[in-house]
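Why should sequence recovery work at all? Because a backbone constrains its sequence more than one might expect. Tight turns favour small or flexible residues, buried strands favour hydrophobic ones, and helices have their own preferences. The token representation captures these environments compactly. In the example below, the structure is given first.
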């Protein structure tokens, strides 16, 4: 059962929900940026440069949280996002590496 903030436990993270969350380019962009950060880094939701309304941004982060890809933590009046790297790697080995490679392949094809 998800915790009070909606974070599913490791065994509750479903591949279908993860893939549905990653299907959206804005959400995949968030995950790609989190993969660039050091392990355990927390980022404010506005730091991703998404040109979306606050409500739409909140929706995307809720989808990522409920899919189990990120953990959101309240820090005062801010909400920070953290990639659940270790847990995702345990549940779906290699998935995050595929996303990282996609970013690298896009960068090399643009040059």
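From this structural description, the recovered sequence reads:
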């Amino acid at each position: 059962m998800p915790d009070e903030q909606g974070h599913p436990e490791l065994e509750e993270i479903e591949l279908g929900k993860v893939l549905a969350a990653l299907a959206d380019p804005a959400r995949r962009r968030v995950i790609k940026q989190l993969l660039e950060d050091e392990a355990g880094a927390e980022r404010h939701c506005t730091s991703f440069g998404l040109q979306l309304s606050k409500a739409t941004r909140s929706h995307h982060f809720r989808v990522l949280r409920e899919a189990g890809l990120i953990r959101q933590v309240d820090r005062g009046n801010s909400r920070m996002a953290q990639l659940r790297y270790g847990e995702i790697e345990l549940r779906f080995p290699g998935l995050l590496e595929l996303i990282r490679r996609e970013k690298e392949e896009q960068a090399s094809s643009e040059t």
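A few observations help interpret the result. Residues 95-110 form the longest helix (16 residues).
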